[in-house]
Amino acid sequence: xxxxxxxxxxxxxxxxxxxxxxxxxxxxxxxxxxxxxxxxxxxxxxxxxxxxxxxxxxxxxxxxxxxxxxxxxxxxxxxxxxxxxxxxxxxxxxxxxxxxxxxxxxxxxxxxxxxxxxxxxxxxxxxxxxxxxxxxxxxxxxxxxxxxxxxxxxxxxxxxxxxxxxxxxxxxxxxxxxxxxxxxxxxxxxxxxxxxxxxxxxxxxxxxxxxxxxxxxxxxxxxxxxxxxxxxxxxxxxxxxxxxxxxxxxxxxxxxxxxxxxxxxxxxxxxxxxxxxxxx
Length: 280
Hints:
Layout: H1 2-10, H2 12-31, H3 33-80, E1 85-87, H4 95-101, E2 104-106, E3 108-118, E4 124-129, E5 142-145, E6 148-156, E7 161-168, E8 173-178, E9 182-188, E10 195-199, E11 212-215, E12 227-236, E13 243-249, E14 258-264, H5 267-278
Antiparallel strand pairs: 1-2, 3-4, 3-14, 4-7, 5-6, 5-14, 6-7, 8-9, 8-11, 9-10, 10-13, 11-12, 12-13
Helix pairs in contact: 2-3
């Protein structure tokens, strides 16, 4: 205590000077606009980088949470889109029977996964996702992303699954062109991970550059109207009755992070019907 008193007595004039100087700066800041502007600008130039750095780290740590919320919102939208249901309106059934059956019958449901491995420059490209049999994933489920078609589940382990990418020599997806609604098949040309070939389109069909290409819904793997891409090249081949068409793929395969797995709730029933045709 004595040491503190001695220090104050010894440095009283210096302390008084500092206190008065601070009071003067405060009075100048509060009464004169220009000094206040200068001080405020200087303060922002000093503290600005620190605030920016804090925002960067805060944003980085919050990104995973924000991404999870966005994925959940996308799942809700996918589950409620029209292509996830079939609608009953059979005149042979009474209104009571229709109500009992539920006029809107869900056919497709969705879940999501993270891509942990992906290739784009090979002849046969594939992905590995972080969900497997324990999460309800099974062989032949469709895989899409927010931009469009990705591929089909090929193999499943307990916690992981491999996916045959659209960028695979064995990939073949039933597609339709809008607005003509002409049906064809999407096959990767094994040359460019941004483009694919659209096959089986007759030359007499009116197809234009910029026409959109969607899944047809004729495969029970993919729901209808999932975007595949747009027509970017068109060529008439004199040696064939079909057009040579190239499609600019809507999915950026080199930047896949989160994907959505599509489950057809009636797949086993459809597989059973399909196998009866093979046996004939």
